[in-house]
Write a structure and sequence with these properties.
Blueprint (H helix, E strand, L loop, with lengths): L18 H16 L8 H29 L4 E5 L3 E4 L2 H8 L2 H10 L4 H5 L5 E3 L3 H15 L4 E6 L7 E5 L2 E5 L12 E12 L2 E6 L5 E7 L2 E13 L6 E11 L5 H5 L3 H14 L14 H26 L5 H4 E6 L6 H12 L4 H11 E4 L10 E3 H7 L1 H21 L4 H7 L2 E2 L5 E3 H7 L3 E4 L2 H9 L3 H6 L4 E3 L6 H7 L2 H11 L2 H4 L14 H26 L8 E6 L8 H17 L8 E6 L7 H18 L8 E5 L5 H7 L5 E4 L11 H7 L3 E4 L5 H8 L5 E2 L4 H9 L4 H7 L1 H11 L12 H9 L5 H20 L1 H14 L5 H13 L4
Parallel strand pairs: 1-4, 1-12, 4-11, 12-13, 13-17, 17-18, 19-20, 19-22, 20-21, 22-23, 23-24
Antiparallel strand pairs: 2-3, 5-6, 7-10, 8-9, 10-11, 14-16, 15-16
Helix pairs in contact: 1-2, 1-4, 2-3, 6-34, 9-11, 11-12, 11-14, 13-14, 20-22, 22-33, 23-24, 23-30, 23-32, 30-31
The chain binds pyridoxal-5'-phosphate.
Length: about 800
């Protein structure tokens, strides 16, 4: 996914070499580290050599940053996340180091095309969607705003699956991103920690028979080995570390077992360790609940905490000062088991009593909640938790006893409320509630948009919020403008530079200076030309990959994100069908040519989501093949949506689809990427859409549909979708067409249950919002016909969304949660 131009950073770094010197360096690395000369080097070898050359230049900044943090005794931030959706890193590093153009020239002199080898870099997809991408944006922003930080996660050998579309269906294939090695990472064999599972807990008593401490004797042990990737901030301000753990058998050769003749036993143990870092669970906002998942959560939490404590002790010598020198952040509840793990390490290993350990723990952790969906709130059956982590189970009970005592002492909670505060869910099977555990173990709990934070206070955490009223706070998500504007949209970046100067490169909110150019016809033309070029790039890609011809002068309407019923791709598809009907029934009308793009992965176990992908493809086939549509409407499903695909699609969008059922999307970040690249949003008042509207203004966004409180009210009062569907001719016709097999003649019943679901319950309120959505789409057509008005709005979007930078988000975390300077 090549880009024509690249952004030149004005102030090159002082040590930036000339292209000849860089070319010589590349040749040297190719020869002595890759072991090839130019006659036999493959394109992968050139890629490896180029990455290693930048990596070398990063190392000095890296060591410097690490040493400074040590010398100045700076507080460090530790960001624990089971997901980092990184994408490709080479351009990121070139761009942030200000050496993109020199590197390009150096490679040209060696007969190598930078864009061609950049395409070969695997897209590191160690995450599912928004949550993982947020972690990646945060890592880049923490380095940019100069916070000493480490990210901790798992080095999955197979990250997110690769999606292929076969006969319209999603097929999941393993993504083997490490096939050609990973030139970015450093393996740290010496930085390895043992992690235990199972076994039993023994009590050690003193000579008078008093309990001294508990000792956990795990039944199994594995080794977590560190792999470090440097994370470069803008202009290489700072280089931080992303440390990912890989599972290994404790004794790599397992000599005892092997020599004793137990070859299979030796193999089994090796496989067990390996399994911990083999695959990323591919469910996003969806139930998972496998034992291996809990093992992964504990594996990386324990290794990270042991590492953090070792670093702290070696510098400060005692753990009482931990909260002053370390802020540990839990990205969702996936690392929530770190709370009892820190307690265990403090009490059982370092001999600190419960009260002090609890005080240290709560002052050290912060927790971000990412979802209110009941099916995504993590909990584990007590018997499983107890079998895998017997000592942690005891500690969870002890914490729970302390919390419930505190709650009862206030005299403000009745039995039901106490039951909801409890870390243990008692109705049905007994389960450990990871959200409650993360909440009570943290001094700060944040939501990710203003609306989501408010709903969190009113719903999932209402009782805990009442008990601890000062803990919940909001930190609206953000995106890094380096990747999501400078790198992915060099055309727009250059245009902005020549129009308002370079200040926005270092302070993205200064892009507001573009606002007044919305009224400047000359600027609008240039802006439209950039958009046109980005659309042509996407059109070429779609023609090459899918054989579908789309017209770059049509309105590009894009919905790319995980496929989930609450995100309502179905609403969009049904509207496309209704529009298709209209175009055929009224050929005389002046229809706005549109291309509707879809992209996204479904969790492999999520039946309806996979069916929605098939429906999008079935509908595309019929509409694209119908000559009576005269090309006025096309539908394209772009396979394998990932960061690299997003980097091509965001800049090419005219319209951004953000149409979740109000109250269900915690924030969204795709909405921010689109707006920053000059797309107008059609959306519900959900997640960060609310704040996007506040910033871009009502005239520059298309809001429709039920609000969050109205959704709740409808549900409470017995929502009747059937009556609504029957009252909407367009909707009932579209549903009838799908239901009767118009789009699936080979299997007419394929979508019957999916459509019946709309009549019977329609939990996501597709029917309730359909007419308002269709009407908003037609008013969008009207604005599109007035091209100057459209581009003025698009320009205002770009100018007014600088606030949604992850630099701003991170500065808020630094000040309000972590208490570190930024
Ligand atoms: C930004 C991003 C997301 C999140 O998209 P939403 O629309 O906020 O759900 C998911 N996947 C990728 C690859 C992204 O870049």
């Amino acid at each position: 996914m090549a880009s024509a131009k690249t952004v030149q950073i004005p102030q090159a770094l002082p040590e930036d070499p000339d292209p000849q010197a860089l070319a010589a360096e590349i040749l040297r690395v190719l020869r002595y580290r890759v072991g090839k000369d130019t006659t036999v080097a493959t394109r992968y070898d050139w890629l490896t050599a180029s990455i290693q050359v930048v990596r070398d230049r990063v190392i000095d900044h890296w060591m410097e940053a690490t040493k400074e943090a040590y010398d100045r005794q700076e507080k460090r931030v530790y960001y624990l996340s089971l997901e980092f959706l990184i994408g490709r890193l080479m351009r990121d590093a070139f761009s942030n180091l200000g050496m993109m153009e020199t590197m390009r020239q150096a490679l040209v002199s060696l007969g190598v095309d930078l864009d061609a080898i950049a395409q070969l870099e695997p897209d590191a997809a160690l995450g599912n969607g928004g949550l993982g991408r947020l972690a990646a944006c945060f890592m880049e922003s923490m380095a940019t705003v100069d916070i000493p930080a480490h990210g901790y996660g798992i080095r999955y050998a197979n990250g997110m699956f690769r999606q292929e579309i076969q006969d319209g269906w999603q097929v999941e294939l393993p993504e083997t991103w490490l096939d050609h090695g990973n030139p970015w990472e450093f393996e740290r064999r010496e930085r390895a920690f043992e992690v235990g599972f199972g076994g039993s807990v023994e009590s050690v008593t003193d000579k008078d028979g008093r309990l001294e401490r508990h000792v956990w004797k795990p039944g199994e042990r594995v080794l977590a080995v560190a792999y470090d990737t440097p994370v470069v901030g803008w202009r290489a301000n700072r280089v931080n570390t992303l440390r990912l753990w890989s599972g290994m058998p404790v004794d790599p050769i397992l000599l005892d077992k092997f020599n004793a003749g137990d070859h299979m036993g030796a193999l089994a143990e090796s496989n067990k360790a390996d399994a911990l870092s083999r695959v990323l669970y591919p469910a996003d906002s969806h139930k998972e609940g496998q034992e291996l998942r809990l093992r992964q959560e504990y594996f990386f939490s324990s290794a990270s905490l042991q590492d953090i404590l070792q670093r702290h002790l070696s510098q400060y010598g005692d753990l009482g000062s931990l909260p002053d020198k370390a802020a540990i952040h839990l990205n969702d509840t996936h690392p929530a088991v770190a709370v009892p793990e820190l307690m265990r390490l403090l009490m059982d290993v370092h001999g600190i009593d419960f009260d002090q350990a609890w005080d240290i723990t709560r002052r050290t952790f912060g927790y971000t909640n990412h979802t209110l969906l009941p099916e995504a709130l993590e909990s584990w059956p007590v018997p499983l938790f107890e079998r895998l982590l017997p000592r942690h189970m005891q500690i969870v009970y002890a914490i729970n006893a302390a919390v419930l005592l505190e709650a009862r002492a206030t005299g403000r909670f009745n039995g039901d409320q106490i039951a909801r505060i409890s870390l243990i869910q008692e109705n049905g099977d007994r389960r450990v509630r990871m959200g409650n555990l993360a909440f009570v173990g943290s001094h700060s709990i944040n939501g990710v948009s203003a609306l989501h934070t408010e709903l969190m206070k009113q719903t999932v955490f209402a009782d805990l919020h009442s008990l601890y009223p000062n803990r919940i706070n909001n930190k609206t998500n953000g995106i890094t403008p380096r990747r999501w504007l400078f790198q992915c949209n060099p055309g727009l970046t250059e245009l902005a530079r020549e129009t308002i100067g370079d200040r926005f490169l270092d302070d993205i909110e200064a892009i507001h200076d573009l606002d007044r150019f919305a009224e400047d016809a000359g600027f609008r033309d240039k802006f439209a030309a950039v958009k046109r070029a980005n659309k042509e790039r996407l059109a070429t890609l779609v023609a090459e990959r899918l054989g579908i011809k789309v017209d770059p002068s049509a309105l590009f309407d894009i919905q790319i994100k995980r496929i989930h019923e609450y995100k309502r791709q179905l609403l969009n598809i049904l509207e496309a069908i209704a529009l298709y009907d209209q175009i055929r029934s009224h050929p005389e009308r002046d229809w706005v040519p549109r291309v509707k793009f879809f992209g996204g992965k479904a969790a492999p176990s999520y039946h309806n989501a996979k069916l929605i992908i098939k429906l999008a493809n079935d509908v595309a086939k019929v509409i694209n093949g119908d000559p009576s549509v005269r090309g006025l409407l096309k539908v394209v499903f772009v396979p394998n949506y990932n960061v690299s695909a997003a980097e091509v699609m965001m800049p090419a969008a005219d319209l951004s689809e953000q149409i979740s059922t109000a109250g269900m999307e915690a924030s969204g970040t795709g909405n921010m990427k689109f707006a920053l690249n000059g797309a107008l949003t059609i959306g519900t008042l959900d997640g960060a859409n609310v704040e996007i509207r506040e910033r871009v203004g009502d005239d520059n966004i298309f809001i429709f549909g039920l609000k969050a409180d109205e959704v709740a009210e409808r549900r409470a009062n017995g929502y009747q979708p059937r009556a609504i569907i029957e009252g909407s001719r367009e909707l009932s016709q579209a549903i009838a067409a799908v239901s009767s097999g118009v789009f699936s003649p080979d299997d007419p019943d394929r979508y019957r249950d999916l459509m019946n679901g709309l009549y019977d319950s329609d939990w996501f309120m597709v029917a309730a919002d359909f007419d308002a959505y269709a009407a908003a789409q037609r008013s969008i057509d009207d604005v599109w016909r007035d091209s100057p008005a459209w581009y003025a709005r698009a320009i205002r979007n770009v100018a007014r969304v600088g606030w949604f930078s992850s630099d701003r988000t991170i500065r808020e975390y630094a000040k309000d949660i972590w208490n570190v300077p930024a």
